[in-house]
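MODEL INPUT / OUTPUT PAIR
PAIR INDEX: 1
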Amino acid sequence: MRPNLSGMDKTIGSAAAAVAQIASGATLAVGGFGLCGIPSTLIQALLESGADDLEVVSNNAGVDDWGLGLLLGAGRLRRVVASYVGENREFARQYLAGELEVELTPQGTLAERMRAGGSGIAAFYTRTGVGTQVADGGMPWRYDSDGNILIASPAKPTQTFDGLSYVLERAIVADFGLVHAWKGDRHGNLIYRSAARNFNPLAAMCGKFTIAEVEHLVEPGELDPDSIHTPGAYVHQVLQLTPAEAAEKRIEKVTVRELVS
């Protein structure tokens, strides 16, 4: 007799319903790299929900008119933890004007902080950042309106192992994880496609409650277990995208050359 798995169906009917529980002041871990693999439908729904004072943990903050840049432009973000922010003019303006707190983190360190948070590891030592302000403190997290440093990063503990110095980095655990997957089943098992895999598995891991938007929804058992990137144990809700939503994929910078006949 096959077990009754109907109670494990994690699908939800709309993006608005999926993000309804995200309240102002929440911390979000958001997947994506540049504009590749970002949960754009969930971000749009969050924008429409009106939630503000949000802290976002993501590799970057989108661009001015897409991705997390939409929330940023609407003044919904209070704090951003990221490793790269170079494609967003409004981000730079808010940061330098003292409207936004920013914690810049080396990319590999950010990835490991998120993975550690999802693995139950409170902190870890790394060589990255030793001898810089990453370890010594003093990086400007927030300016005041006159351009003075209002909040600076604290110094972090260091330790010597085998004659080499390491800096202690704390894990990241977010209230919610928002991710985009190429394919998923009703139990929340997810497969990402190519470069869209990037930070999505990490965002799914470190969110206490993870919502996944999927391009293709399949029935349990249809995914090859060896191909699953994020097990359903990390995912709490699954939103099936419409064909139009799944096709909405933008490029940060389009570089072309003249066709030579």
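PAIR INDEX: 2
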Amino acid sequence: MNPSALRLAAALDASLLTFGGGGLLLVERVTTHGLPQVAVLGRCAEDLVAPLEAAARVQAGGLALNLVGLLAVECDLPAALDFHRRRIGALVAALDAGLPWLGDRPMLARRLPGRAFSPTPVDLPPVPMGPLERNALAAHLPMWSEAEREEAFQRPRWQSCTTGGFEADLWTGVALPAGVLVRVAPLDLPTAAPLSDLLRQALRMATGGPVPLLPLPADPSPLQALARITPDIAAFRGPVEAWEAALRGMAALPAPPHFCARC
């Protein structure tokens, strides 16, 4: 057993679910068995602090919603979620709280790039992007030059791998030349859905400013893993007040039929 994982589980008041050589930390904030629940994935322990605090506050106020915090500790996250799916149970939604905001400003991710591999760097077609999206990025990232935005979102640069070959970000809509392999598939997140609407509203209420929907150059793998346990997935990060508003909104969303390992 990993001693650091045990210490982290104790610090978070969590259960350590083992799978293979690692583990999945499960932090449950459950008020009543059988209620709709939200799963929040953190990429580090700090990502779970705000949602867990928010859950404690709204549950104390009588909100009928449970929360499950997830933290992967040196484990194969997709396999661990598959293995423990019944233990985690039915979910209203699954959120990844570990994605960084662009420029550390509130936004919601609408798509994330995967990774392409090639033995040698080759020219990739530019990422399709309309004028509205380009203008939104320019407005959200005024400190970035046009060249920086183009490299991050439209013409990613190849980077050498320590094991040989080269990798580059791969956005949706890019036709790959012969010989280029997809190592991680890109991910498009639903934007015209009740979940994304209430998350956007929660951030707007908490921050007092507009909340754009933008592409985000970050690893989509954890969100893809969360899609294995629920079709409603999103990236969300904000202050405790934003989490409180988000949880209140999610409590009103239709929940799937309940199931869990206790039933």
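PAIR 2 NOTE: Residues 203 and 242 are 5 Å apart (CA to CA).
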